[in-house]
Design brief:
The chain is α+β, with helices and mostly antiparallel strands. It is 15% helix and 39% strand. The protein has three domains: 78 residues, Elongation Factor Tu (Ef-tu), domain 3, CATH 2.40.30; 80 residues, Elongation Factor Tu (Ef-tu), domain 3 (Beta Barrel); 31 residues. A six-stranded antiparallel barrel has the order 1-2-5-4-3-6. A six-stranded antiparallel beta barrel has the order 7-8-11-10-9-12. A hairpin with a 3-residue loop joins strand 10 and strand 11.
Length: 214
């Protein structure tokens, strides 16, 4: 699990394809002595496993599913990537719960300056619209953010200068693609209610309250 608070913006050194799979090597300022082989690191929001380290770099294997679900296929040497190590149970949860399982890829449709901030708009596959709500949480390339506005297949976020400077959003422009992870709670709630309806039960305030949603 992750918090969506980026620790370091690394630089992609190389991407190696092996059939449908591949590997990523990233140059990073993270303390390598604190990162064990087999450790989980979120790379642009996708949870990957460290398979090699050294010389200021981390290498991760990438599965066909990860390649299909993410924008990794669009990366090239020199691309900035957001990095976050897995959270510890003793950590403060300053962002929101992020699983590192990317749902879809969205495209930047607009970038505009508003009162010193940056407002980004994104277009995403409409089937994921039910998981994105105004003032709800979303992870964009692993960054925990609050949704400003949302339609059936678009949403916008407001980026403060600190977030822009500390993540790869600083360089994002219209046409760029980003990894999206929707709110974990929304997905579990949908599954819970779907199971209830399949067993002949209705969606009631009592049910929602019992499971901590109201």
């Amino acid at each position: 699990m992750f918090t969506g608070l980026i620790e370091n913006v690394g630089e992609l050194v190389s991407i190696e394809k092996r059939g449908a799979s591949g590997s990523l090597t990233v140059k990073t300022a993270l303390p390598l002595e604190e990162i064990a082989l087999g450790a989980s690191v979120a790379v642009n929001g996708a949870c990957l496993t460290v398979v090699r380290k050294g010389g200021g770099t981390l290498t991760f294997d990438v599965s066909p599913e990860t390649i299909d679900r993410t924008g990794f296929k669009n990366l090239k040497a020199g691309s900035p990537v957001n990095l976050e190590r897995a959270m510890r149970l003793s950590d403060r949860l300053d962002g929101h719960l992020v699983s590192g399982h990317v749902d879809c890829v969205a495209t930047v449709t607009e970038r505009r300056e508003v009162a010193g901030n940056i407002v980004f708009s994104f277009r995403f596959p409409a089937e994921y619209g039910k998981y994105i709500a105004a003032k709800g949480s979303v992870a964009i390339d692993g960054i925990s953010l609050t949704v400003n506005t949302v339609t059936a297949d678009t949403f916008s976020v407001n980026i403060i200068p600190h977030t822009a400077a500390k993540t790869n959003l600083e360089g994002r422009r219209p046409g760029d693609q980003v990894n999206i992870e929707t709110d974990l709670i929304c997905r579990y709630l949908e599954r819970l209610l779907a199971g209830r309806e399949a067993n002949g039960g209705g969606v009631t305030l009592e049910l929602l309250a019992k499971n901590g949603f109201v």
